[in-house]
Amino acid sequence: MSARLLLGEPVAEKVRQRIGGLVTQLAAEHITPKVAVIVATDNEATKWYVGSIARAAAKLSVACEVFDLGEATEEFIAETIKTLNADELIHGIILQTPLPQGVDVSSLVKLIDPAKDIDGANPVSLGRLSVGQDAFAPATARSVIEILEHYRIALSGKHVAVIGRSAVVGKPLAQLLLQRDATVTICHSRTVNLAEHTRRAAVCVVAAGQPHLLASNEVTAHSVVIDVGTHVTESGELTGDVQSDSVQPLVAALSPVPGGVGTVTTALLLLHTVQAATNFLERSRREEWQMSAGR
Fold first, then answer.
1. Is the pLDDT of residue 295 over 80?
2. Which of 99, 182, 186, 190 could make an S-S bridge to 103, C-beta 3.0–4.6 Å?
């Protein structure tokens, strides 16, 4: 028996359909949603990823402008963010990592306007998320939820083990799961006896950034496993945080790498951009109404 594969493409396609409907509505208001991607590295993998965002955006009539700053200073990147914050034609901002050595990413993400923070990087966005207020969740974390909901994996009342405590995936994902009434255990590099937590969980999300971390002895026949990891092997192939060859025959369901979470993430970034543009339109209408009412 082999696991049910939780493929990302059908999920991404549903997201793209939602984008198409919103883009049509915005076009009627003469608004083109636009995302700005700030790049300050010559990392080839990063440039490929940013290029994939631009290509996906073009197919969905979402404008995408890449600001390639080279080996920029922290001050120059900060000024670029402030300029983009003030530009009403820009609806979403992504600060792509890695950044040049010595640049403090934690200081820079604080500068991104939460209304344009489509990848949930600003601590304000993460804080709002933690108390259930409106905010853009990090796209990778939300991708996990989208996959689980698409395949109707029950979360309410279920135990979910999240391996990884990053601000990009682990922590925001825990908040999203709690909002859906799951009981969440966050595991990490210091967790003693990882298998004790993963084997009793209905769903196990592996986002530790460590290749082949989850092994076959740490799952059961009832486990639903979501692999968030992405690593390039010496042969140039992609692999995840799960030992998929040994785990897949044993579990109930598994999201593959490639073809799983990563497939959905780009679509969600563009959905967040379009939603940010819609929010901008609604704010503009409210302000116009308030001004006319005050006359």
1. no
2. 99
